[in-house]
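Feature request, filed as a ticket because there's no other form

It would be nice if the structure record came with a short human-readable summary line next to the tokens. Right now we just get the raw output. Example of a typical job, pasted below so the devs can see what we mean:
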Amino acid sequence: MLAVDTESNSLYAYHERVCLIQLSTPKRDYLVDPFPLGAMPELGKLFADPKVLKVFHAGDYDLACLKRDYGWDFRNLFDTMLAATALNEPNLGLAGMLEKYLGIKLEKKYQRANWGTRPILPEMQAYAQADSHFLLQLREALLPKLEASGRLEMVLEDSTALAYETPALKTPEEDLWRVKGVQALNPKALSLLYHLNHLREALAEEQDKPPFKIMGDQALVEIAQTQPRYIQELTLLPSLPQPVLRRYGSRIMTAVADWRKKPAQVKKRRLPRLSEAELKRRDKLMEWRKNAGVKEGVPSNAIMSKELVGKLAAQEIKSLDELKTLMRHYPQRYARYAQEILALNRKES
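Raw output as currently delivered:
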């Protein structure tokens, strides 16, 4: 049995990566610095070993990061946040759960620290160690309540699905449509925003910083809307702080000048639209899971995740065999709810 947590540097790097892996057994804690260790195939084998239970808390982000950086598979998981959800706990955070069940108060000082720096300070190491150290005890404290509530098998099922269905995080890529406010721009401003966003991405990659630490979305949108001809005009924009203006003002104006010479041709993005039939199936399933949650005394996402709702609503399901295939990672829910789901998902006559 092994408790697992990770620390990454998403707030400090353009190419985010796992910077620390915390592992705890019932007897010892381990802090693994992945920087000098390469692929770590032995650790990958451990995570994929179905005989070794791995305990996470809100493990979806940890799994997504580890899959992105190392391509590992995971088997035999238990997620204490999924357990807390099934128990209808009001506070799902690790700190709140540890305080309630174990009487332990966690230090939050280094929650947003830069874990990519080396050496890692001793007090940061102690903070990281605590995140995995108590997970096994927390699981043991939750098990009797889960068994008494009859929801243990559902939590095990959710944890299994978490291992299989959590996708690897994508590496950063330039995406104009992630800029907040882009949808409100006219074609001319949208064209300039394309050039400005390209500049921000280039600067962020050069300096290995997240794009938002170069300049904010609102600044990009305001520059795209005002289309300045002189650098002095940038000083009038409330979203562009003076330090940013001093550092990048000339490059911003160069990007604007390049745009005037050769504006990018940007077409409005057309978002995929769900069919009317799929929307109806989705609405019915969402209403059903809400009512089922009320009936069973748990949050609706403990009945079924939104992701699973979307998968089941995406097609007309005509048989239990089709439904069983779609719910192959959810055998408990299939056994409990299959007939109701099939009735809801059938095409209306």
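Something like this underneath would help us a lot:
The chain has three domains: 2-165, 176-261, 276-345.
The chain is about 50% helix and 5% strand.
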